[in-house]
Amino acid sequence: MKLTFAFCTFNRARRLDGLVRAMRAQDSPIAFEILAVNNNSSDDTPAVLDRLAGEPGAPLRVVTETQQGIVPARNRAIEEALGSDILVFIDDDELPLPGLLRAAHSAIAIEGAQCAGGRITVDLGANERPAWLDDEIAGFLGELNHGNEPFWIEDDSKAVWCGNIAYDMQLFRKDPLLRFDVRYNRAGEGVGGGEDAMMFRALLARGARIRYRPDMEIRHAVDDWKLTRRYFLKLHYLAGVRQGRYRLPNYARTLFNLPPFLVSQFIRQTARAVGMQLALKPGSLRQSMNAINTLGCIVGYWHRPRL
User: Fold this and answer.
1) Strand, coil or helix: what is 52?
2) How many helices (H) and strands (E) does the chain have?
3) pTM over 0.70
């Protein structure tokens, strides 16, 4: 068997030495390669990857994806790994903890999972955790912890994300249409995306066997600019735009091409958010995120193609 341990990267040259070193330090029961998909980086990424490819350890294969964005980069990794049995994704702002590849191999090759994901711990670096950043909101930074016991995932109440995920490559060899959805692309240093959530939903719809493995664990470094309320609001607005444009049904009852219930929902949520902020109640940021997500749905629905 063969395993491909892949990451997509854009302008994070300074992190690559530590990342590749940690990837090469993994204990894997089968042979593995490291695949780096360089997505048009303008910093020293090409030179750093070239140097790392010549160093000892698991082989590092480097490809360049010229179409900008995480979706083309992830799909390029899938195409490059079609000859492997297992594909494991990690992001370029993460570090794998010991045992990740062994756990991924166990889930796919021994337990029969077609997809497996694990625990993601956020690392704020030298930053103190803001008082308003509770566990629920931290989940939108990629933090994921479904407990200490493995289990099978049967619905979307407990998802796994592509910053720490393994796939049985037969999924993609048998279904050439199963790829990350370009409509949910995030280019460069942009905010949002949602391509991993859509892939997760696509696998659920196909009845894929999905496994949570807590011993598949990574540490995710959070950029300083994400530790602001504005980031979470923008993230939810853009998620709403994509939902309104691509996922909501065409409602028969509309007023000025908008479903009235969405508008009234936005007004109620906004009023509640303002009231909570004035009263200094906890949870006001989360309520504001709900309101702006609904606004995004309205904007997305307004701009969707009309039949």
Assistant:
1) helix
2) 10, 9
3) yes
Residue indicated by tokens 């990740």 = 100
What pLDDT, in 10s, does the model give residues 16-51? 999 999 999 999 999 999 999 999 999 999 999 999
Question: 212 in a domain, yes or no?
Answer: yes
Residue located via tokens 């956020």: 122
Closest CA to 218 of 84, 106, 124, 117: 117
Strands in the chain per DSSP E: 2-9, 31-38, 60-64, 86-90, 94-96, 115-123, 151-153, 164-168, 210-221
Q: Give the separation between CA 139 and CA 122, rounded to whole angstroms.
A: 9
122 and 70: one domain? yes
Q: Residues 80-90: pLDDT tens digits? A: 999 999 999 99
Strand, coil or helix: 218: strand
Q: Please count the structural domains in the chain.
A: 2
Kindly report the average pLDDT of the chain as a whole number: 94
Final residue before a domain boundary, out of 226, 251, 275: 226
